[in-house]
Amino acid sequence: MKFYPLKLAPVTKSIIWGGNYLKEHFGFESNDENIAEAWLTTSRPDGENIIENGFFSGKTLGDYINENGIENVCGDFDAFPLLIKFIDANDRLSVQVHPDDAYAKANGLDAGKTEMWYIVDCKEGAKLVYGLKGEKAPTFSEIEKANNDGSLSEMLNYADVHKGDCFFIPAGLVHAIGDGIVIAEIQQNSNTTYRLYDYDRVGKDGKKRELHIEKASEVIKTQFPDDFVSGKVVSEKDGERCEILCKCELFSVIKYNLAQGKSAYFEEGSMKSIICLDGMGKISCGGEDYEIKKGDSYLIPKACEGFVVVSESDCFEIIVSEA
């Protein structure tokens, strides 16, 4: 059978700000001293999931797409559209911004980068950078001056963070994850990041990490798009809860909380990614059952028939994304 739920092995990344939460709470393995990011659904030159089940076990997701046709796996896309990951910010991330599709196309980049964050866990009092103060985007010279005199933090808007919060990060929005925060991130399949400020940290080579102030100043926006929905509960009854975490023109993300024995049905017609945040259950598709537990990631190709996800624990929590 060519088209079935694909269980994907995570691609782990060690970065200076990472911690051990993903090892301790999700059981992810790595020989590196930390796991800053675990790429759960990805097909990129710098990160490619390995399929862990079925006929295509051992092959990369990219190989699977090449063999079966991107139109059957993803739909009407020229390249794999999403990058889905866990991020463990043991230390704060750089203050950064991402370009939109128009800028990416004009500058030879693979894609713009709009994303959303779901707060999996966080320490008490956690904060993140969420946009800028004021309505006018700073210029290159203003950002450079603020870096030099230590006043850049005065430009930033800070938001309190709680477990279960959701933040929409459109391309052009200045942002930074604070320390003590673990997130699930769903984003366009791009790794283009422009750093405005990095707290004068040094990388593994002993040198300060590169800033991209000029490019950042070219892509910063101060206005949100008005065509997105975030944090809307659409159903809550008898052990079933369904919440739209984010819905925009690029992707939709829905979170399900299911008590034991409860189920959610999904129609065919689009590629879907499922990541499990807690508990265990099964995916029933094409007459077969596929076990899914905390930390697991599955990709359901577009050409699959409809499927059902059933909870087999008291608290079964999944995030379902599609482009």
Kindly list the characteristics that best describe this protein.
2 domains; 323 residues; 25 strands; eight-stranded antiparallel sheet; 13% helix; 6 helices; Jelly Rolls; globular
Verbal overview:
This protein has helices spanning 21-26, 61-68, 70-73, 101-106, 140-149, 213-219; strands at 6-9, 11-13, 37-41, 43-44, 47-48, 50-51, 82-89, 95-97, 115-122, 127-132, 156-160, 166-169, 175-176, 181-188, 194-197, 232-237, 240-247, 252-258, 263-266, 272-278, 280-285, 288-293, 297-300, 307-311, 316-322. With 323 residues, it is mostly beta strands. The model has no long low-confidence stretch (mean pLDDT 94).
By CATH, the topology of the largest domain is Jelly Rolls
Name the CATH class of the largest domain. Mainly Beta
**Category from helices, strands and their pairing:** mainly beta
The CATH level-2 architecture of the largest domain is identified as Sandwich
N- and C-termini, Cα separation: 24 Å
Number of domains: 2
The DSSP helix count reads: 6
Strand content: 35-45%
What gross morphology would you assign?
Answer: globular
Radius of gyration over all CA atoms, rounded? 20 Å
Number of strands: 25
Order of strands across the widest beta sheet?
Answer: 6-1-23-20-25-18-17-16
| Helix content, binned percent | 10-25%
Q: Looking at this structure, what is the CATH superfamily of the largest domain?
A: Jelly Rolls
Mean pLDDT: 94
Low-confidence sequence ranges: none
- Biggest sheet statistics: 8 strands, antiparallel
